[in-house]
Every structure is written in C-alpha cells, then in structure tokens.
Specification:
This protein has helices at 6-22, 27-54, 70-74; strands at 56-61, 64-69. The protein is an alpha+beta fold.
Length: 82
C-alpha cells in the first residue's frame, strides 16, 4: 500500500464530512465514518506539525541572510519589523 499523503487524507476527510452532513447514513455507518475521520484528522495534524518543524524563514539581518527556525518566529522571539 502506498504511503498516505496529506492531500489524500484531507480530500478523504472532506468527503467523509460531506457524507456525514448529508445525514443519510445509519448510526453504525456514521460512527465508522466518524472514527475514520478522527484518524485522518490526527494524521493531517501530525503531518502539519512535522512540516511546521521543518519550515525555516530566511530573514535579512545586518546584511546577512540568516535562517531562523519557524518556532522562534511564532514564539515572539524575533521582531519581524527590523
């Protein structure tokens, strides 16, 4: 089986959401789809967390390009107005 991608998981999650919103499923089928959706949401969240950890922003500081980890920017450690 091929490794699941974020895009495939998100598309399936959107499909499950539409099916559940239609309200035409039995309770048992709804619960199975909900369970699948929870697992897909966890996979997507994990994928985004992993991607976020890899992102680095390139900033121009004192005439030099400096690579700063994304979490330093989001934690307020860096002033972007410099």
């Amino acid at each position: 089986m091929a490794k699941q991608t974020f895009e495939d998981a998100l598309a399936r999650l959107e499909q499950l959401t539409e099916e559940l919103e239609d309200g035409n499923l039995s309770l048992d089928k709804s619960l199975k789809k909900f369970d699948e959706g929870i697992k897909l949401a966890a996979f997507c969240n994990s994928s985004l967390t992993e991607a976020r950890a890899k992102v680095e922003l390139i900033l121009n500081k004192d005439g030099q390009l400096e690579s700063i980890p994304f979490n330093e920017i989001t934690n307020g450690d860096q002033d972007l107005s410099e």
